[in-house]
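Let's practice the habit of predicting before peeking. Look at the sequence and jot down your guess about where helices and strands might fall. Then scroll down.
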Amino acid sequence: MPSDEVTDRWRAFAVCLGAGFMTLLDVSIVNVALPSIEASLGAGPSDLQWIVAGYTLAFGLVLVPAGRLGDVRGRRTVFVAGLTGFVVASAACGLATTPEMLAVMRLVQGLAAGVLNPQVVGLIQQLFTGPERGRAFGLFGATIGVSTAVGPLLGGLLLAVFGEDQGWRAVFLVNVPLGAVLIPLALRYLPRADRSSLAPSSDGTSSQGTPSQGLSAEGASSAGRPVTTGAPGARLDLDVVGLGLVAVSVLCVLLPFVNAAEGGRSPWWLLGVAAASVVALVAWERRVERAGRTPVIPSSLVRTPSFAFGAVVGTAYFAGFTAIFLVGTLYLQNGLGLSPLQAGLVQTPFALVGAVSAAVSGRLVQRWGRWTVVTGIVVMSGGVLGVDLTAARLDGPAAAVWMAVWFALAGLGNGAVISPNQALTLADVPVAGGGTAGGLLQTTQRIGASVGVAGIGAVFFSSLAGGPARGHGPALSVSLRVTLALFAVALTVALLDALRRRRGPREQPAR
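Done guessing? Here is the structure:
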């Protein structure tokens, strides 16, 4: 292969990593800015919950249709559109004048990130094959870990430089110069191949006569659809009604908890609407499949035990895991009086130890299977319990130091949960459906994260509103016990799956 072509592929990959880093950074960088947003814009508890949960929810809901859109319309086009939308929304977030405007712009920012993210994965599959693809995905995984670790520190540093009153704006505006560099590089280096060239021919070459840089030889795209759907004239078959019912169900669960954080009466009757929406979704999805179309939730995945168990584990785990940093940051800054940078330093051990643990657990899961995840949840729960006891019994610098220690233990467990669970969940999914299954798994995890932020956040703020005697420490402690309850659900399901696998044929996670 000509050296110029190799260089161009790695340049395109670098653009993908840059965009992926930027969108994933926004998941963690905002947490340390929440107290500053609260003070600057007069944001209430529900506003803060929407600022965090809204981004995650919007991100998750568009992953599957965005992956399909890139397959049909071309990943380069959708990538640039998503990146441009993300940059514009970031600028709007940074210039927001009210908490409501910021919350809405965060939803838009999450939608753009959700459009962009599947294209990154799809382009990696398109650009690389064989060992190079494994190397590229390894670097992408490292980028995810780095973005998680850098987020709190970078957010704290920006607030230290620009001041806590307005420095939170820099947390969003930093994406603008990054995007201004990445957009022209994307237009220059991302492959311009027409949609038909994405499909490998029978001899393993693309339509241009070069070895296929496209999707897997088995014929799966990043959204789990046959590569022939990328041919000119392919129809964009999206289950819009199914997606709408999913969105309605999740929103009807979120709203009562978000409103409860403000005190007063909350529309708990919406939980009944959510249940009705789920029933309607099941009926609609069966109708879609009978019509020969592709539903949001294929029944074949639901009937695959490894996927069904793994999806429940991931959803329950993310529901507990994500909210830790919302309530933890509010405790560290508003309760202990730490600066945003100091709060970021306390949380950094979680990400650093977690990155090492994730790398090691990738090998352990090949030998221990689901027991790797079981052990990870137990260790993670131990770390969270340590944070809980610290918040309940200590104060001042000692509390911050011990929280950093317990965060490190939690990170050790977290690294043994997320990636191994994904590998095990997708192990028995046919290659042709791998993209759809992967997108659906990410979607359920992000929905779980959104619901968890709303529910655990509501418990934290409600406890805090119980009176000055309660304080941030007891409020954190109470909310973390909800987290531990969700981890108990994930642990129970993981144990059931581990025992099921022991009784049945030995399963190997997908490589």
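How did you do? The CA atoms of residues 224 and 435 lie 4 Å apart.
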